[in-house]
Input
Amino acid sequence: MKKWLKKHKNFNFIAGAIITGVLLFTVLIGIFATPYDTTQMSVADKFAKPSFAHWMGCDNYGRDILSRVMEGMGNTFLIAVLTVLIGTVFGVIIGALCGYFGGLLDDILMRINDVLFSFPSILLALVIISLLGTGRLNVTLALGIAFIPSFARIVRSEVKKQCSLDYVKSAALMGAGHMRIIFVHILPNIMPVLLSSVMIGFNNAVLAEAGLSYLGIGVQPPAASLGRMLSEAQSYLFTAPWYAIFPGLVIVLTVLGFALLAEGTTEES
Amino acid sequence: MLLSVEDFGIEFHDHDKPEKVVEGVSFTLDKGEILGIVGESGSGKSMTALAIAGLLPRKKLIKEGRILFEGEDVLTMERHKLRGLQGDEICMIFQEPMTALNPTMKIGTQVEEALRIHHTDMNDAARKERALKWLKNVELEDPERVYGSYPHQLSGGMRQRVMIAAAMVGEPQLLIADEPTTALDVTVQAQIIKLLQKLNKESKIAILFISHDLSLIRQISHNVLVMQNGHLVEKGAVDDIFEHPVQEYTKKLISAIPKVEL
Amino acid sequence: MSENLVSLKDVEVSFTSGGIKKTEKQVLKGVSFDIKEGEILGLAGESGSGKTTIAKVILNMVDIKAGSMERTTNHPQMIFQDPYGSLNPAYSINWIMQEPLRMSTKLNAVQRREKVALMLKEVGLDESYMDRKPGELSGGQRQRICIGTALMRQPRLLIADEPVSALDVTVAAQVLALLKRLHEEKGLSILFISHDMRTMFNFCDRIMILREGGIIEEGVPKELYKDPKEEYTRLLLKSAGI
Output
């Protein structure tokens, strides 16, 4: 671990780690307590400017924006993490099996993969949501499925590359079975590429979720969502710009932080 | 004297501590001479060859000494002058015929490339004629067909011959060959060696032949340089080196060649 | 009378490639030979001759179109040409060398580790190599580890596919000496695949010349080299400067 840290100590990694760290910390606090109740409305505080009492001001219902942003961040993180998890787990399984065995299995699965891949992820998510309905779980499922194809392709390509190396033949001669060869011998060697894809995937998931919520088919009110807040803030852009600025800023920082982390960890010495 | 390497050294400065990969190497090469440089991995032979060809990066490493090609120092020459030499007076061929040729360009186009750069006075017809002449010289059957083919349509041996043709087309004074036969089949290797010897006799081109294979070095060289860990261990005429080696390392290398006594 | 470890009779192997229009290429055209117990058999051939396919046939890694392959040894092992791709970069030497034991024995971790230490000594490496990773080792050291790993299951036959072709001359000599010693001490039979006629002369008991999927000539090195009957054999010898 120490060696790993030393190797990746560079500006990108540090900057990314700080930004992501601060955001994660905020999310954690938000799980237990937010400055105000996220659903508490207050006519008196309607469109309150950012102040000491309300760091990010209030929205059209007088709800504290900071608190809503914190909750929204939590939702976004959760959905993004689960989405990437689904995409990675199934992507690895499909990609590894196709890359290792090839043949008919590869042909069939990859054609299906290509069909899924050709849908823009938001469109695919739309289709799935229209079948399953809205809500956090369904959004996660929909995006997760939409993310599988790209992971599968990457894993397949990396596994194929590894299979051409002699250590794989050697593993077979040692008596290891196919599954063991794929998951114990080959998989650790594709980790660097996979990790990089996971980080990029996380960012895409954040943006996709924000997009879906903005369109109104993601997280539903009264649950807070950064994308949804952006949508609502549109009408008040000139009267209460802080309503749009803060959620938007948080989305930008999240993506930036992770991108820097990804860049930092994949930088070669 | 075509080439004079004087106290040449390379020190890498891209890691934590500086690393000397070549140190104190001096030798000369005459017109028409075949000099074999033999060494194991890490000996610095390839680095030296790249330096002579002017292919070493100018940053991240420090070069000492001089490499005089026809009296001028290749290491400190202005870039445009160096570029004028590369491909025209000094040419290089490499180990991997599979990756040395551009897969998307026809053979003819690639062989003519050096002419296009250095001999702007030649028109299309003249260039094609010269290219075909050299494709024939490297003993390719049906040069016209090869001219119009793509690399993937040729075998490894044929590609290496094309590489040699592409290097010779500018009729250079010096050909640097870095392990040119290592990736080829044994029978093809022998043919390429014979070809290089023929070209040397006919065009009087000087050849710097780098290899780890002592028997090949013995077959082709007039003189031999033995390198180890960046240093020049021994140099001399080929027969002297092989029959009366002086240095321990040279003796060790020679004794490592399996002997066949019938 | 030493038994035949492996027996190939008229083996034919072909590969089909291409999607819609399938082209069939015959890689082995009726190959027959035996590997006797305790011998070092050399297989000389260039690329495309089918030498690697013969190894795959013996290891049951490829389908035989015609003919038969019989073997009395259960798990022949193999070492490969490229020392840099032969060891899994993600694991320590200890883990890699224990894997054959993990798969085939009921030994526990401590016992396996002991066996690894013993084997490292056999191949001339210090115990400290156990916790290192392949990336830290040189070509010659890696090849020694590969040999050690291959021997963990105590095979009676080792197939060596160009094992020293990618190594420096002095290092190659050491690795060959190691193989010869293991052959003598443990009675290990070796199928030595190479294109290097010089190395094979001193190393092999018998040599077969393989060309385009068929064995064109074979014999004891001294006789074969002195009086080759086939043009191709003469060409191979001449190219090696013999």
